[in-house]
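*Target chain*
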Amino acid sequence: MHTRFYHDPVFAEHMTGPGHPERPERVQAIAAALEAEAFHFLDRAAAVEGTLEAIERCHPESFVRKIAKAVPDSGLARVEYDTVLSPKSFAAAMHAVGGACAGVDDLMSGAASSVFVAGRPPGHHAERQSAMGFCLFNTAAIAARHAQAVHGLERIAIVDWDVHHGNGTQDIFWEDPSVLYASTHEMPLYPGTGATTEIGAGNIVNAPLRSGDGSEPFREAFKSRILPALHRFQPDLVIVSAGFDAHYRDPLGHLKLSEGDFDWATSRLLDIADRYCDGRLLSVLEGGYDLTGLANSVAAHIQRLMTG
C-alpha cells in the first residue's frame, strides 16, 4: 500500500485563541507521532493551495467572498460563536482543500493508493452557506465534487466517524443520490442533527450512538448500517471524514473509542475500497481535541492505511 500524507506549515498558522480546542497544537501532535520509525517510509507532500473553482462546487461564490472579507489583518475575528478567523485562516482552509483535491488526483493517477490530509480548519460542519463548528469550507465535500467534475467518477461515498454529526456534508448532498453520506456520531450532541430518520434522497445513512458507547456499539453500527449501505452503493471512491474526538480521552464528546477501533474501521473501509474502488481511499482530518488521543489515533489510522 502506498500512502501519501499531506501537510503544510500554514495549518499551524490558523489561530483560534487561548482555550479554543481546535488549536495549532493538533497538527503539531500528529507530526510528532509520525516521527516514529514505523512512518519512516511514509510519503509526505506539501498541500498546495486549492482553487476557488473547487470550493464553489459546494459553496456559493457570495459565501466564499464573505469568509475572505471577514479575515482580519491582525488578531482574531469570529464567524460565529465558536468559529474563529485569524490572518492565515483563509490560506489554511485553501490549503486543506488543495491537499484533498491533490489527494484525489493522486488516487486517480495511481501515485498513491490511499491519502491522509492533516489539514485544519476541519470541514464537515460547513454547510452550503454557513461556516460553523470550527469549520469554514467543507473539505470532504469539495474533494467529492472534484472527483466527479475532474475525473468523471459517478458514485462517491463519504464515511464520517467524528463524534459530532457532519451536518454540513449532509446539507450539501441532501438531494444528491450520487454521493452517499454515512455517519456514526454521538447523539444528542452538537450540532443536533443526525437522526436515523434523516435520509435525504435515500443517500443519507445515520447511525447515532449514545453517550458512553464504546467499541461494541460502534462496530455494530458499522456492521449493521454503514457497511451494508456501502456494499449497496458500490462507490467509485471512499472519502473518510476522519475525526478522532470519539476517543475516550476527548473533552468534547462522551464516546469511549480507542485507537484499536479506528484501526478496525479503517481496515473495513479499505476492504470496501479494494472491492469497489481499485483501493482508492482519501481521508481528511476533522475533529480530535485531546492531543494524546488524537496523535495515537491518527498514527493507528495511517499505519493501517500503509499496511492494508
